[in-house]
Amino acid sequence: MIIGCHVGFGSDQLLGSAREAYSYGANTFMFYTGAPQNTMRKDIDEKLTNEAKEFMQTQNIEIKNVICHAPYIINLANNIDPSKWDFSISFLKQELKRCEQLGISYMVLHPGSAVSLPREIALQNIIDGLNEILKTPSSCLILLETMAGKGSELGKDLEELKTIIENVNKPIGICLDTCHLNDSGVKLDDFDAYLNEFDQKIGLDKIKCIHINDSKNPISSHKDRHANIGFGTIGFTTLINIINHPKLKNVPKILETPYVGNEIDSKERLYPPYKFEIAMIKNETFDPELIQKIINYYK
Ligand code: FE
Ligand code: FE
Ligand code: ZN
After folding, report:
1. CA distance linking residue 49 with residue 51, whole number of Å
2. What is the predicted pLDDT for the residue at 36?
3. Measuring CA to CA, which of 8, 116, 122, 265 is 20 to 30 A from 155?
4. What's the CA gap between 252 and 248, in Å, rounded?
């Protein structure tokens, strides 16, 4: 099982990320090269990168399974402000370079939001933006994430993703997100039906990463609020079936579940759930007391 979670990327850069992942019992991880909600980035430190690679080798974390996530304020779909659109393109070019410097093979990207534009125009903007970015060859593959369809998000169904992939003239991959799929209307308790449709329209070989999240909202809610594993509307059994699906065995699974504690602990501190969620997934047995155990462990 290739399983990890979202980790930080601080002053120790990839070394800190790898150490954090290891502390959770993960054998892979996903990071943003800075804050997810802004585009301020520091140069990649070669020495720290080499130390990270050494550490990962000794801990059996294979760098080919490690994922970078582009900041979510980047929006290739809307070019109403041309300077913003140009910035998104040049930022993503630089982000791919940073990934190459780090030895990272995959960068997850939200396709974007149409905002005030018609959806067809917004889709074309995404295609044009990706074609521009990919003029420079990169060893890092962009993965479009399946989205919940919140607001005017694109990439909420297979048709939109297929349109992008077919019209971008370089290879791109896909990152599934179970919370987003549920919220967009996919019945995850019949995951094989979805995979069959995916295989016909896009091809299963395009799936390079899966975000494993439960959802706080019912199917087709178009909300995108992640829940801890087994504590949402998707449920533990369905998520375990996806994680253990034989056709997706070699695809890295990444948890992006929320930190816990604010509702229960009066000090309002939040604790990472990943160590406990990963152990519970490996156990294949849902623990209804998990949240309280996490809080007791960290506080
Ligand atoms: Fe994402
Ligand atoms: Fe996600
Ligand atoms: Zn999400």
Report:
1. 5
2. 87
3. 8
4. 9
> CA 265: distance to chain centroid?
28
Q: 47 C-alpha vs ligand 3 centroid, how far in Å?
A: 33
What distance in angstroms lies between residue 283's CA and the mean position of ligand 3's atoms? Answer: 25
Ligand nearest to the CA of 179: 3
CATH of 3-298, picked from 3.20.20.150, 3.30.1330.10, 1.20.1250.20, 1.50.10.10, is 3.20.20.150
Backbone angles phi, psi at 182, to 5 degrees: -60, -50
- State the ligand closest to the CA atom of 176: 2
DSSP states of 85-129: HHHHHHHHHHHHHHHHHHT--EEEE---B-TTS-HHHHHHHHHHH
What mean pLDDT is predicted for residues 85-110?
Answer: 97
pLDDT in tens, 173-191: 999 999 999 999 999 999 9
Report the distance separating Cα 112 and Cα 122, nearest Å.
8
- In contact, 168 and 131? CB cutoff 8 Å: yes
> Average pLDDT in the 272-285 region?
98
pLDDT at 299: 85
- Please tell me the distance from the alpha carbon of residue 212 to that of residue 206, in angstroms, as a whole number: 17
Give the Å distance between the CA of 121 and the centre of ligand 2: 24
| Proximal ligand: closest to the CA of 72 | 1
The pTM (predicted TM-score) of the whole model is 0.97
- pLDDT per position as a tens digit, 244-255: 999 999 999 999
